[in-house]
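Sanity check

After download, print the first record. It should look like this:
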Amino acid sequence: MENLTIKQAAERSKKIRGHYRSLEMKHHGSEWSVQEDALAFLTDAGLVGRLTMAQQGRWPVGESNEAGLEHKIGENIWWLMVLADRMGIDSEEALENFLSTTEKRFDI
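Expected structure tokens:
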């Protein structure tokens, strides 16, 4: 598989979100607001926490669900790209700025 760039991931995320928007219109008559998208992201972020606890043996669920954890981590990255796009923030630029600022803080 070819390496995925942040820009490519953001473009693909936007297309996928467009398909979800169509489903929202069909089933609810309106698309989700940015706030509803943010709430959906937070719900999935909480699931990453719970699946991480299970994977680390700190939450009793029987078998660890590695595939579910990987999926939810990917979905959370997707949500962040969707939210950034909806609020006019370039994901790649935001990440670059964060990394550069943090590296300077730690003199890396």
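If your output differs, re-run the checksum step. Summary of this record's structure: Residues 2 and 48 are 26 Å apart (CA to CA).
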